[in-house]
Amino acid sequence: MSRSRVSTILRTTLALLVVAAVAVAVARNWAAVSADIDKVDGPTFVLAAALACIPPVLTMLGWRVLLAELGSPLHVAPAGGVFFVGQLGKYLPGAVWSIVAQAEMGARLHIPRRRSAVVAFLSVAIAAICGLVVGLPAVPLLLTGGDATTTGWMALLAVPVLGVAFYPPLLNWGVATVLRVLRREPLEQQLSGRAIAKASGLFVLTWLSSGLHALVLLRATGASADLPALLVATLSGFALASSLAMFSVVLPAGVGVREGLLVLMLAPISSTSAATAVVVLSRFLTVLADVLFALLGWAYARRHHLITTREERERDHVVVDDATAG
């Protein structure tokens, strides 16, 4: 059996074990968890679902900024088609399936596969760093279960972190070095400070909006903490848990990691059962949002022959570039 085959089996097995562990933990406390879930009424659930649909759009717009800066500007519609369909790949074990899907679809829009791959990696890297920055105020909650109202000063650390990590010459040098090590041709264009700032701003907004649905759900369960504490635990906490989960590439979409970390940060200001209820509903809503946008993207991609077979394109007399340079 090949090494890649063994690696895939191990990743899949680990992912299943983590999901099973989360399921067992929820099942053991289901009576209390279900009671807290029942506290979320219909209008609150709909509001949370609507709020969960904001981050995917902002993420796509940030990805689109980087793609345009490197030489492939796309209208929002085709950008959504490529990005949202490709994003379903994050629910598979490993870290490359979204990149592969986006590169293949992008090739039919005359986007070099090398450029698609670089933009995908940059988007993940910049988004993860932005998530860690937004999540800084929640670090004491994660480490000690401390008082969230006293941690706002940690957000000041964001300025030097962003300044160093996103310094254009350093970022462009890093991209060029990776491509050289991989023996790939260098990119035709470099990232400007303006594009990096714009994409970073969109990713920061993505993280700030990501926890809004968790805030609504937590308040519905009866959490009595004051608003500043709730904001730190949900907005910063969700960003911190999700961005840390992004580094667990063997697990599909960080399943289990995000939930466990978020429970640790929400429980001190509510209860373990309420925190568990929130993360269960949160995962459902975020997956639902991803699937909804993927269906919309799939409809566009099918209509514009980004994911059709060669036979279907020949039947409809459509010519696309299947051999875009890598």
TrEMBL record:
Task: State a single Pfam family of this protein.
Answer: LPG_synthase_TM
In what way does this protein cross or attach to the membrane? Answer: Multi-pass membrane protein
Q: Which residues cross the membrane?
A: 45-66, 118-143, 155-179, 199-218, 230-253, 260-278, 284-301
Q: Where in the cell is it found?
A: Cell membrane
Keyword Transmembrane helix found: yes
Q: Which UniProt keywords apply?
A: Cell membrane, Membrane, Transmembrane, Transmembrane helix
Secretion signal, residue range per the UniProt entry: none
What protein name does the entry list? Answer: Lysylphosphatidylglycerol synthase transmembrane domain-containing protein
Q: What is the lineage of its organism?
A: Bacteria, Bacillati, Actinomycetota, Actinomycetes, Micrococcales
